[in-house]
Amino acid sequence: MIDVGKTMSKITLWSRDGQLLDRQVRPNEKCEEGGIARLDAAGIAAWATGVLGGHANSGVEYIVPVGHGAGFAAIIDGALAFAPLDYEAAPPQSAMDAYRAARSPFAQTGSPALPQGLNFGAHVWWADRLYPDAMARATLVPWAQYWAWWLSGVAVSEVTSLGCHSDLWSPDAADWSDLAKGQGWDRRFAPVVKAGDVLGPISPALAAATGLPATVKVLAGLHDSNAALMAARGFAEIARNEATVLSTGTWFIAMRLPAAPIATADLPEARAILPEGRDCLVNVDAYGRPVPSARFMGGREIEALIEIDTRRVDIKPDQPLLLAAVPAVLAKGAMHMPTLAPGCGPYPDAKGEWVNQPEDWYERRAGACLYAALVADQALDLIGSDERLLVEGRFAEAEVFVRALAALRPKTQVYVGSAHNDVSFGAIRLIDPALMPEGTLRRIEPLDADLDTYRNRWLARLEMPKESNA
Question: In what residue span(s) does the Carbohydrate kinase FGGY N-terminal domain sit (predicted)?
Answer without folding.
Answer: 123-230
